[in-house]
Amino acid sequence: MEETDREAVATAVQRVAGMLQRPDQLDKVEQYRRREARKKASVEARLKAAIQSQLDGVRTGLSQLHNALNDVKDIQQSLIDVNKDWRQSINTIENLKDVKDAVVQHSQLAAAVENLKNIFSVPEIVRETHDLIERGELLHAHRKLMDLECSRDNLMYEQYRMDSKNTHDMNLIHTYFGDMQKLSEELAKQLWMVVQRSLVTVRRDPTLLVSVVRIIEREEKIDRRMLDRKKQTGFIPPGRPKSWKEKMFNILERTVSTRIEGTQADTRESDKMWLVRHLEIIRKYVLDDLLVAKTLLDQCFPPHYDIFNRLLNMYHQALATRMQELAAEDLEANEIVSLLTWVLNTYTSAEMMGNSELSPEVDVNSLDPLISQNVVDQLLSKYMSTLTSNIIGWLRKALETDKKDWIKETEPEADQDGYYQTTLPAIVFQMFEQNLQVAAQINEDLKAKVLILCLQQMNSFLTRYKDEAQLYKEDHLKNRQYPQCYVQYMIAVINNCQTFKESIISLKRKYLKSDMEDVLSISHTNMDATLDIIAKEGCSSLLDEVFMDLEPHLNELMTKKWLMGSNAVGTICVTVEDYFNDFAKIKKPYKKTMTLEAHRRVVVEYIRAIMLKRISFKNAEERKEGAERMIKEAEQFRFLFKKLAAGSGEDTEGLCDIIEAIAEVIKLTDPSLLYLEVSTLVSKYPDIRDDHIAALLTVRGDASRDMKQTIIETLDQGPSQPNPNYVPIFKEITVPTLTVPKLLK
């Protein structure tokens, strides 16, 4: 207390010091004193009030505790009295058992009396209910059925309460109401018929469907009530729970499955497009049904049925089952494509589940796959295997068909530019194009695999094509009169090579991704090489044909008859030009090559005729005449092949220069200059061999054996400076082997 007083005094001193800091504040001392006195009185009054309030509360609490104590004592006394009374009344309760049994019996009799009217009218109600069902008044029929079931259930319940082991009376009640069970089954049959046709009924008579749903809902409520009573009493009427809601969904599920399976109207034997038709019918039916379910059916069912999503799941499961069944069948390649295209693309497209009218309820991204990836891979593997066999068969058949055309007596067709061709390239690449388009419908990976397969098989096919073209040539050589249009069809084969090249490039450009170029570059190179070989061999066979006709005229060259004025070269030129009128039907890349080859072979054959030493000029006059004739004929060849090569941009004069160079050696009048002239010839054409020089000197007719040997030996020792642009030609020309040894003896 002393410490508190000291703190109070110190606080008062501070307050007074704060009030009296200036002299003029001394005049207000009395005013300050009165103000502080008022504050003190106010604080004391509040303290008194608070203390008084606390005292009143304590007084009230003590009073309530006293009352509670008195109440507890009273209750204790009452419990003692109740316990005493209960002990005294035990015997009395046992004496009331007969009364209790009478009450139970009275309750049962009261229930019987209450249902007496219904009990006596059961047969009549059954007939009425049956008539209502037949007339389609299902709601009224169900109401009467409910009344009958209620009467039966109440009687059986009372019997159960009275004596649950008395099965005789229970069976008696059950038998009496036996027709009621038949009515229930008959009504259920009508309900399930409506449910099965719900998607049709909802369009024609939605009221009927609503009535069915109401009946099912009533039964569901009764089922729940009976199950609750079973938990309490252990009793449940026969036939409960009916579970009609569950049965309804089972019926719908079976109906959906049947509808999906029933869309197959054809078989492979009756229609090769059976699967396409089947899948299209499924697509149309499912889409139509789901649209009806969303717009109409959903309004006929309570929201908690979630009927649209339930139906959606049923259709999805039914489709998955059907697709798996189809996938397990022995499908052909086109059928596998149809199935996978439908499953992977059509199903989720705007034509079906992705239809805008089904959103947002249907989310295609949340739908499970209709068939597993493993099954998809198996189908794709089977498809690729089947497709490989099919492509091999198609290519073989196409080639066989083309070969039949080769022996026709009519010329092959020409394209818009007038070049001969057969239908083989178009057939082959149309087949490839169709298969690639089909594969692209499934996915990009399959398209790439099919493209690789097509090009691989094309590679093998071209090898067979080359072999068949060679056999065609060999068969023709056995009888040159057959086939009649051999030249024209061989031209078509050559042109097909160019068409194949262009088609391969077009196919790759259209279907090949840039990142796969490297994978197929080797295959493409091999195909180009094979096509070039086919074309080259074809051109060679055509030139063989030309030179077989030229052979009699080539044999006249460098003979006495030739020197006397034979027109062999003129005939050769006319024959070559005539053939090249047909060869004009060859496409440019190969025509150009063929013209150059024909030019080279004519010159080679001409030089070979010289080297065969059919003639040996007797004097300078003959040598001059023969050389001038050679120069003239070289000019004829030059003019011919310049004409044939018009527009090709190729230099066709170099080959004929060889003939003229040889003619200059033969024409030379001064034998002393012969070595110089021959050395000039050798320097220009370094592939000339010793036997060529010996044969040439033999044709001159004025060179002695020693001169020949000297010139040859001297030339062997001299340096050679070949022209880098020169293409060897003498290496193809052989000289009779006996000639050189005879000369050198």
UniProtKB/TrEMBL annotation:
Top-level taxon of the source organism: Eukaryota
Family membership: Belongs to the SEC6 family.
Keyword RNA-binding: no
GO terms classed as biological process: exocyst localization; exocytosis; protein transport
A GO molecular-function descriptor: SNARE binding
Oligomeric and partner information: The exocyst complex is composed of EXOC1, EXOC2, EXOC3, EXOC4, EXOC5, EXOC6, EXOC7 and EXOC8. Interacts with EXOC3L1. Interacts with BIRC6/bruce. Interacts with MYRIP. Interacts with SLC6A9.
Lineage: Eukaryota, Metazoa, Chordata, Craniata, Vertebrata
Pfam families for the chain: Sec6 (PF06046)
Protein name in the entry: Exocyst complex component 3
Major place of residence: other
Organism the protein comes from: Malurus cyaneus samueli
Job description of the protein: Component of the exocyst complex involved in the docking of exocytic vesicles with fusion sites on the plasma membrane.
Entry GO CC: exocyst; Golgi apparatus; growth cone; membrane; midbody; perinuclear region of cytoplasm
Gene3D superfamilies noted in UniProt: 1.10.357.50, Exocyst complex component Sec6, C-terminal domain
Subcellular location: Cell projection, Growth cone; Cytoplasm, Perinuclear region; Golgi apparatus; Midbody
Keyword annotations: Acetylation, Cell projection, Cytoplasm, Exocytosis, Golgi apparatus, Protein transport, Transport
